[in-house]
Amino acid sequence: MNDNPVWKTILSIAVCLFAVIRLAITCSNNSKRSSYSDTSYQNVNSLIQHYRNENVQNDDLSNDLFYESYDSISKLNDAEKAIFRVVKVKNDTLLPIDLTSKINIESKSFVQKNHDDSLQLAMKLPDNTSIFIHTYSSNDGLTDNLKALKKKKNIENIKVKVDDPDSKFVSYTYQYGGKKYNGCALLAKEAGQFTSLEFENNKLSKEDLQIKAITFVSLLAK
């Protein structure tokens, strides 16, 4: 990682967006919260069975786990967590993401590190927010890379909030397990290295999720 990591670019987007999103929320009515009940545990069981039936390691299947609910992941036993390389954070923890940056992960969150060729880190927060950090070499456009990452989810309603040559902030939606998910992502590219930091939740409003994303990124430890 060089002296000017892509995280500095992402952090600069976050600082600029924070006040704008705050203002938008203040001017709008309070968003309605959708009710939430855990109906995806069977999906997790199916995922585990499929994973075990594979003759070779399949990171694509493992990478799907954090699209399931927090409650479903909580029901996995230790052996099943080991299959998917999942650990539960007992206390607030600073976790390195490169040589110069760390992120704060709140207690009781689940963390997954597959060390595959794209998913650097995944987190599942107690409020059911999924956070994915993807990074890999690519010459494609930023939104094209995001669409490729989310091709299984058929993301829709992609809206670019900030549009710079080497960085973007976008929002999107998708349907999964009979629920609608709001998503937003901070995208950046530096020296051919694409990085995507995605936040997704089926309970938070689009505006609240964006505030959560910007707040999260602004707390990056240098």
TrEMBL record:
Keywords: Membrane, Transmembrane, Transmembrane helix
Regions that span the bilayer: 6-25
Protein name: Lipoprotein
Source organism per UniProt: Chryseobacterium tagetis
